[in-house]
Amino acid sequence: MRRLIVLLLALGCLGLAACSLPRVAVLRDPLTAQEHLQLGLAYEHDGELELAREHYEDAAEEMPEAHFYLGNIAFGQEAWGKAEREYKRAIKGLPEDSRPRNNLAWLYYTRGENLERAEELAQQAANLAPEAEKGEYMDTLELIRQARNAEGKS
Fold first, then answer.
1. pLDDT band for position 29 (cuts 50, 70, 90)
2. Which UniProt keywords apply (predicted)?
């Protein structure tokens, strides 16, 4: 009888030990950074900004362009510091892209701060812009120059 009790206890302990062993699950994101970026764009287009932000963040490590879009979302939410940081990251990762420079210049213009830097950024954006888009960038540059002139007259 004693052997039976010991055997049952041993089997019970083994059963509990087997059931309580931790399991390690390795999850791999099935989406590429490009797919996350595309989903972010689709969600942003549909006004689902939180979902867009999540997908941009998932893409940002591999795709600097995602920082540009994160900056745009932050700008729209008036999270100025975050927008500025994201645009700066986009500029660093996309040295030949005019968009983040223009948007950071626009942020400074909108806030009425760093107008000298805003003018530099807007000029760089205009220089980098494709010919067909240069007009938009020149408009930003002109508005910033007007604001700087008005600031100097005050």
1. confident
2. TPR repeat
